[in-house]
Amino acid sequence: MKAQNWVQLRERMVNDQLRSRDIRSSNVLNAMREVPRHHFIPETVQHLAYDDRPLPIGMDQTISQPYIVAFMTEQIQPKPGMKVLEIGTGSGYQAAVLAHLGCKVFTIELIPELAQRATNTLHHLKYEDVNVRAGNGFLGWPEEAPFDAIIVTAAPEEIPPNLIDQLKDGGKMVIPVGSVSSLQYLKIVTKKGGHISTESLMPVRFVPMIDRDVE
Ligand code: SAH
């Protein structure tokens, strides 16, 4: 497909899937308009890159629906220079959106093949402020903590305590919580004056966050 056509598909995605729902932040809308999502999608389904749905990225994993990426990004109110931890790198797309917004991104992926592929894609697209690590996200990234914000894109059954510890005071974490078989809720966790508050935003469906070592 020609470059211009991808641009049109992205423009349509922003209008029909994001603006028409409740995404209002102009910086988030701009990032969604500019980051080339199709580069993060396997060739077999690349033509569906800007559809209103999640897509398979191999290894039984998925890239989230564009709306969910925009919604989660908007929740942390990204600003240039913010240090953000992402759990579940997957394709690297969410990390690219955050980097495009000027965040310093640290992202952890359990499956080494996906971590490697995302590293290559991000490098190819010149997103330099993204650090990808193959590891278990339940441990967080203690050497780089605390983080201004944390975005978790796989669902644990409980909020991992290490991630709460690694959140800066005044920081926000957005995380889907619940088991695969039951309903998961997207939650926003806020830390203020050492006090933790949690709010449920909407029902969602994410792949499970798995607590094991990297092979
Ligand atoms: N944010 C991604 C989509 C993530 S899909 C994107 O933009 O494409 C969820 C990812 O979380 C999967 O790749 C899965 O392998 C990963 N994952 C599951 N459990 C994990 C864990 N404990 N630590 C890190 N990553 C994990």
TrEMBL record:
The keyword Transferase applies. InterPro entries: PCMT, SAM-dependent_MTases_sf. Its main location: cytoplasm. It catalyses: [protein]-L-isoaspartate + S-adenosyl-L-methionine = [protein]-L-isoaspartate alpha-methyl ester + S-adenosyl-L-homocysteine. GO terms for molecular function: protein-L-isoaspartate (D-aspartate) O-methyltransferase activity. Signal peptide: none annotated. The active site is at S64. The keyword Iron does not apply. Keywords: Cytoplasm, Methyltransferase, S-adenosyl-L-methionine, Transferase. It is an enzyme of class 2 (transferase). GO terms for biological process: methylation; protein repair. One of its GO terms (cellular component) is cytoplasm. Its EC number is 2.1.1.77. It is found in: Cytoplasm. Catalyzes the methyl esterification of L-isoaspartyl residues in peptides and proteins that result from spontaneous decomposition of normal L-aspartyl and L-asparaginyl residues. It plays a role in the repair and/or degradation of damaged proteins. Belongs to the methyltransferase superfamily. L-isoaspartyl/D-aspartyl protein methyltransferase family. This is Protein-L-isoaspartate O-methyltransferase. The gene is pcm.
